Amino acid sequence: MSDNIAMRILLSSDAVVRTALLLAALAATPALSQPVDGDFLAARDAFRAGDSARLERVAPRLKGYLLEPYVSYWQIRLKLDDADPERVRAFLTRYDGMPLADRLRSEWMKSLGKREQWSLFAAEYPRRAGDDTELDCYALQWRRAREGDAVLDEAMPYWASGQDQPESCQALFTAMLGTGRLTPQDIWTRFRLAHEAGNYRLAVRLLAELPAVDRPALRDLERIDRNPAQTLATTDFRLSSRAGRELALYALDRASRGDAGAAREGWLKRRDRLGEADRRYGNLLVAYNAARQLLPLANEWFLDAEGAPQNAEQRAWRTRAALRAGVWADVARAVDAMPEAQAQEAPWRYWKARALAAAGQDDDATRLFGGLATEQHFYGLLAAEAIGAAIMPVSEPLELDASRLNAFGAKAAVQRVLKLTSFDLRPEALREWLYVVREQADETLLLAAEFARRNGLYDRSINTAERTQRRHDFALRYQAPYRKEIGDAAREAGLDEAWVFGLARQESRFVADIVSSAGAIGIMQLMPPTAKWVAKKAGRPEFRPTDLDLPSVNAQFGTFYLRYVLDRLDGLPVLATAAYNAGPRRAQNWRGTAPLEGAIYAETIPFNETRDYVKRVLANAMFYQAELGLPYVALKQRLGMVTPDGRNSTAGLPAADRASDTP
Question: Among 142, 89, 92, which residue's Cα sits nearest to residue 117?
């Protein structure tokens, strides 16, 4: 489960315990108001129902209440397009520095921009918080009204994207087309960006902006979309025209996403009829998709694409194809071809060092390994092992007394976090907490992390402890709530406790009653069908899905499933970790045709989410073994050597697919 995945809280016995702790914390600090909490919940329900009249009746009873700002926000939000500007400004002034103020300002400016209320918009735009493409495009509309069409040139970066842009940008694009600032070349360029991003609907829409003489027939596009492989193999594209060439490349991209090997066969029959630039671009499309499909020849096919401009993802997969093929010289060349900013990212520094070591350039390799070894992540750990450096995280815990914690807890913003959490308003509580800890010094962050830990807000505690720059407390970063429940379950399943904690930390940050947007539940994020499968296998006929809220049950079921998967994937944690996130069949299919380092297997996982997940879980395990005082196991040993596909069967396993993207 990704860190920013949408989640909600379910009521459970554990939630009741946490709520009691939170309310006790609230009671221990000075009360800000006395109104009944039920009035606030009634106001919330009225807002959710869009019942402005009911909200207006309840609001007066909540004057002076801790969460009164939310009630005021809801009142304005329900009538935003007709809101009195002075009332909005009064709210923004009164609650300046709160997430609600920034949120309302952004929403109000979008309403103003849509209605072209430029004088009001201009007054608030400089005060906006963060980047917002929709607002930026409204700002360009406002400036165009004052300065003329020359401003439209500044909208070109928003055009140069394969993703859909907000409606406020579309108005600029229409004006750019009308004034001739967007040429057919610009449209074809964005067409390529769109289909490279898999945004086929946008790609097709863009073609409608071409002059009629340059526009391909809609029936030709529909034929490609219905069956790209067949169309690529059988259609005689008019390669003498720009439209014909672009349609051929569009069909190639779509066909190679399904089967790059088969698409290449059709491509070879026609590529010599294209110019060099288009030929190299087509070769790149095939090689990139082949790399993501882990085809053994992808590295060779990338050689045919040399000279074609590549985006960051294509450059990354060019390097991964070389890793998968075991051609270290190509790994080095691929990293050297990256822009400096990308080449300095941790993965590519590590693999460049490995390539240098393979070439006998030990001094240069050691220099790169040494720089990485000071960094606390997957590649830093691997680099430290490569040069024999000790992996001992050094903590500098903050000395705290009750008075400092009480003073922190008495802050109105912190009180709002606790209250919102007790009301199951998790997104609101998270936003409030982020404002509490943003731009704070390390000491304040550690204080906040400890306060959150003591109040059962484990996710906020861990995430806050991870923000420190110089002074770190690894006991907070890698805390172990539910030590007995998780430890007992790990031992019963015969699993490494550090690995299980590393997985639970990544899955849920130990929020016991959390539910992902996909429906995975609890500290080990079990899908209900998987839990039912475990219950049947484990002989637990009394199991009910609501039991997954209990850390003890969740840990038992999660470790049972993890053990079962591990046994069927050659006992390799790297494979089992991938399987836990993306499903055992996918983890099995990602194996190579020859023995493969576990680190290379992890690096070449086609799903972005799962690739990051596996690295984080196994790095977590390294820190947990230190924090829990467990025997040292090297990361390289945890990764192991992944043998070719097919040694063991995953038949009978539930899919348990939770990865969010596709190869």
Answer: 142
DSSP per-residue codes, 517-528: TT--BTTTTB-H
Strand (E) or helix (H) holding 516 = strand 514-516
Q: What positions carry a catalytic annotation?
A: 507
383-416 burial: b if 16+ Cβ within 10 Å, else e: bbbbeeeebeeeeeebeeeeeebeebbeeeebbb
Count CB-CB contacts under 10 A for residue 275.
Answer: 10
Considering the chain, tell me which residue range(s) the CATH 1.25.40 domain(s) occupy.
32-146
pLDDT tens, position by position, 372-414 = 999 999 999 999 999 998 777 889 999 988 999 999 999 999 9
Model confidence over 186-224: pLDDT tens digits?
999 999 999 999 999 999 999 999 999 999 988 999 999
CATH level 3 topology of 32-146: 1.25.40
49-105 residue pLDDT tens: 999 999 999 999 999 999 999 999 999 999 999 999 999 999 999 999 999 999 999
Q: At what angle do helices 608-627 and 573-582 cross, to 10 degrees?
A: 130
The Cα–Cα gap between 222 and 203 comes to: 12
Give the residue ranges of DSSP H helices in 9-84. 13-27, 37-48, 52-58, 68-78
pLDDT by residue (tens digit) across 420-456?
999 989 999 999 999 999 999 999 999 999 999 999 9
Question: CB-based burial of residue 38 (10 Å sphere; 0-12 exposed, 13-18 middle, 19+ buried)?
Answer: exposed
* Rounded Cα gap, residues 349 and 371, in angstroms: 9
Q: How much is the mean pLDDT over the chain? A: 91
The partner residues of 516 in beta bridges, in order of sequence, read 7
d(CA 19, CA 102): 28
Long-range contacts: 222-226, Cβ < 8 Å, 24+?
A: 224/250, 224/251, 224/254, 225/200, 225/254
- Please say if the pLDDT value at position 580 is more than 50: yes
Residue 360 neighbours by CB under 8 Å, 6+ apart: none
Query: What is 483-642's CATH number?
Result: 1.10.530.10
Q: What is the pTM of this model?
A: 0.90
Compute CA distances 346 → 154, 312, 334, whole Å. 33, 14, 15
CATH 1.10.530.10 domain residues, the chain: 483-642
CA-only gyration radius of the chain, Å: 28
